[in-house]
């Protein structure tokens, strides 16, 4: 027993350990010791130390818990009819967000907590141990504030996305004044991040810059919805403002790619959105070859990507975006951590949080090789069994 009363656990018989640690990314026949919630030792299974608890994973693969750095989980209602219409040929537009805004505003706090908890449990059984949650379906001062308060019950990675779309009955410029004024004042205490949907039909370059600048001034760090539906200024702006991450990155110029590479801004790719909007996927190969840091996330939301599954995103990234299985799993773990500027998660090395998933497979490659199969057998968070 450690002094905190937590037990130590040693995982032995790990057929293939994917650590996401660039120093030693893969180990065969490995063992890992977790103590007081953090990784204390990694080495050959034959040399595994003693611990209070011994878990023999019998040749299965182990990976770090997934880090889902982009999710919109606080909402009510769904958009089944919109999805069905889209699959019959109606194009996706950001306007659908307003449908969810209406349903979310009319929902009670317990309903929203329940809905969020349901999605969070879905994430857990699919191996996600760290996740971000955005507001953005309230779009009034109080509705945004309560969304963030709810998000904070589930994660420290809370993002103020008051600038998701312009709500009905106001102009973009008037709304930006609210977002950067009273809404930011009410929301900043509940948020770590500020985000803006910089896109035709949402917020233009200047409005987006104002939103990010105001958020940064209030002590938040920036991330941006950029270049999802068409080419635009979002990625350039993310680099200019020193954002942690530019998310979507579907339509990029060569300049966007070199800006991302030079600035170190993470390109967070969200293939669930292209899947569910039947759009061309972002070109991950182009980004990786240019030296850009790439993350994968679900973008879970009721409109453009109603999935909580990181394994699904890994499979799409490998099949459709030119990533190798190793690159995709790295992007879904270490990449997500980098997009959240976290050093304690998304990686299995001494001192990191003991967050890991045991796969019902001999290799992480199976996440792409066996798409749609529930391969996550066990999930451990801070050294405790979660699933
Ligand atoms: O990331 N792009 C903006 N927001 C979401 C879509 C939200 C919606 O359609 O409800 C996204 O894809
Ligand atoms: Fe999003």
UniProtKB/TrEMBL annotation:
Its cofactor is Zn(2+); Fe(3+). Pathway: Amino-acid degradation; L-histidine degradation into L-glutamate; N-formimidoyl-L-glutamate from L-histidine: step 3/3. 4-imidazolone-5-propanoate binds at residues 79, 137, 164, 228, 304. It comes from the Bacteria. InterPro entries: Amidohydro-rel, HutI, Metal-dep_hydrolase_composite, Metal_Hydrolase. Pfam families: Amidohydro_1. Binds 1 zinc or iron ion per subunit. Residues 246-361 form the Amidohydrolase-related domain. It is found in: Cytoplasm. Zn(2+) binds at residues 70, 72, 225, 299. N-formimidoyl-L-glutamate binds at residues 137, 301, 303. It catalyses: 4-imidazolone-5-propanoate + H2O = N-formimidoyl-L-glutamate. Its main location: cytoplasm. Its EC number is 3.5.2.7. Keywords: Cytoplasm, Histidine metabolism, Hydrolase, Iron, Metal-binding, Zinc. It is an enzyme of class 3 (hydrolase). Fe(3+) binds at residues 70, 72, 225, 299. Catalyzes the hydrolytic cleavage of the carbon-nitrogen bond in imidazolone-5-propanoate to yield N-formimidoyl-L-glutamate. It is the third step in the universal histidine degradation pathway. Belongs to the metallo-dependent hydrolases superfamily. HutI family. This is Imidazolonepropionase. It comes from Microbispora corallina. The gene is hutI_2.
């Amino acid at each position: 027993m450690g002094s905190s009363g937590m037990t130590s656990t040693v995982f032995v018989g790990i057929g293939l350990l994917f650590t996401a640690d660039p120093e030693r990314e893969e180990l065969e026949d490995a063992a890992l010791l977790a103590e007081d919630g953090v990784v204390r030792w990694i080495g050959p299974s034959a040399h595994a130390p003693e611990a209070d608890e011994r878990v023999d994973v019998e040749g299965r693969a182990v990976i770090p818990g997934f880090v889902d750095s982009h999710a919109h989980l606080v909402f009510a209602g769904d958009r089944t009819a919109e999805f069905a219409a889209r699959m019959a040929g109606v194009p996706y537009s950001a306007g659908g967000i307003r449908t969810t805004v209406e349903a979310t505003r009319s929902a009670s706090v317990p309903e929203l907590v329940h809905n969020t908890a349901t999605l969070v449990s879905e994430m857990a059984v699919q191996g996600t141990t760290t996740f971000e949650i955005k507001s953005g379906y309230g779009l009034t001062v109080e509705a945004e504030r309560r969304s963030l308060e709810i998000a904070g019950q589930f994660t420290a990675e809370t993002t103020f996305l008051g600038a998701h779309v312009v709500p009905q009955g106001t102009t973009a410029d008037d709304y930006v004044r609210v977002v950067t004024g009273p809404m930011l004042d009410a929301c900043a205490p509940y948020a770590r991040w500020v985000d803006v949907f910089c896109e035709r039909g949402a917020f233009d370059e200047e409005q987006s810059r104002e939103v990010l600048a105001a958020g940064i001034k209030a002590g938040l760090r920036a991330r941006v919805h950029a270049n999802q539906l068409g080419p635009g200024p979002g990625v350039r702006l993310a680099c200019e403002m020193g954002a942690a991450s530019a998310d979507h990155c579907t339509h990029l110029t060569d300049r966007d790619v070199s800006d991302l590479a030079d600035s170190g801004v993470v390109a967070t790719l969200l293939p669930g959105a292209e899947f569910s909007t039947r759009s061309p996927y972002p070109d991950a190969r182009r980004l990786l070859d240019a030296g850009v840091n790439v993350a994968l996330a679900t973008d879970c939301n009721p409109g453009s990507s109603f999935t909580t599954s990181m394994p699904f995103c890994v499979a799409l990234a490998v099949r459709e975006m030119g990533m190798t299985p190793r690159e995709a799993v790295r992007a879904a773990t270490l990449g997500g951590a980098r997009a959240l500027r976290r050093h304690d998660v998304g990686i299995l090395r001494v001192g990191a949080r003991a967050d890991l998933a045991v796969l019902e497979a001999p290799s992480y490659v199976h996440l792409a090789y066996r798409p749609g199969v529930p391969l996550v057998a066990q999930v451990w968070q801070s050294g405790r069994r979660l699933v």
